[in-house]
C-alpha cells in the first residue's frame, strides 16, 4: 500500500488562550472550551468556528490517522491565527508560540508528523528572522502564509524580500486563503468557505504570476490550498488578457507558463478536477491534502485520488505521499 501523507491539516495548542493571554485586543482569536472534547474559536466574543479535540490532540489525530490509513500528517497553523493586522512584536510572539508548539509535537511523534511554521508577514524583516528560526532551529520543513497581507496582494513590493529569501534558502511555502475578498457579501450560506476562499486563492496566484514574482524567483516552491481554488480554471482567461493588453504585458511568457511552477493540494472534491490538474500541471505537482480536522475536509484523506480511476500506480503513489515529501525537501524511499 502507498504511503499516505496528508499535507493539509491544521493544529492549535489546547492551552492557546492561556499562552496568548498577554496579547490583548479583539483582533486575537481565543479558544473557549465547551466540553472535554470541544471548543469554540472566538474572535471579538463571537464564535468564529466550532472545533473538536482533533484540532489540538496529537493522540486523537493519530487514532484518526490509523482509522483512515494516513501515515503522516503535515501540521500547519489555523489561518485565523496569522494576525497580520497586529503590532509586529505581538504577531511575532504569537508566531513563536505556535511554531514552538508544532515543533514540540513533531519532536514527540517524529514518525507521524511534519511541521510547517507561521511568520508575521506584516514585517518582512521579522518574517525572515522567524522563517530562519523555524527551519534552522526548530526543524520545521516549510512556512504557511496567507493569500494577502492586510489587503495587499502577494506581489506587493514590500513582500519581495521574503520571497527572495524563501527561494534562496529553498523553503517551501504553503499558501492558504484567509481574509477573503468580498467577504462582506458572503455572510449567508457559508459562502466565504465555498466561494470566497477559492476566489481569494485565485487572486493570490494571479498576483504572484502577473506581478512577476514567479518570473523573478523561478525556483520558489509554492503549494496552494484547495487545488489552487479557481486559479487553474481561470488561466486561459488570464492568458487571453496577456495577449490583448500589451501595455500590461510585464511577463516574457503567458501566465499559464508560470502557473506550471506551482504545486496544488488535491482537495478538489471530484476526480474530474483531479484529472484537470494533472493534465495542466502534471501529476508531480499534485499533493494529497484533506483540510483535517474541519467539516469541509475530505474523508478519508486521499479519497478523490482513489476515485480517480485513470491514475497509474506510479501516479497514485506520488500524489498520495511522495510528492509531499519531495516538496518538503525530505528523503524519499522508493
Automatic annotation (TrEMBL):
- Protein's pathway: Secondary metabolite metabolism; quinolate metabolism
A Pfam family reported for this protein in Swiss-Prot or TrEMBL: Amidohydro_2
Q: What is its EC number?
A: 4.1.1.45
The UniProt entry's coiled-coil ranges are none
Q: Domain Amidohydrolase-related, which positions?
A: 5-329
Alphabetical UniProt keywords: Decarboxylase, Lyase, Metal-binding, Zinc
Report which superkingdom the organism of origin falls in: Bacteria
- Establish whether keyword Hydrolase is in the entry: no
**Entry annotated with the keyword Nucleotidyltransferase:** no
Spell out the InterPro entries in the cross-references: ACMSD, Amidohydro-rel, Metal_Hydrolase
Q: How does it assemble?
A: Monomer.
Q: Which family does it belong to?
A: Belongs to the metallo-dependent hydrolases superfamily. ACMSD family.
PANTHER family xref list: 2-AMINO-3-CARBOXYLMUCONATE-6-SEMIALDEHYDE DECARBOXYLASE (PTHR21240), 2-AMINO-3-CARBOXYMUCONATE-6-SEMIALDEHYDE DECARBOXYLASE (PTHR21240:SF27)
Q: What is this protein called?
A: 2-amino-3-carboxymuconate-6-semialdehyde decarboxylase
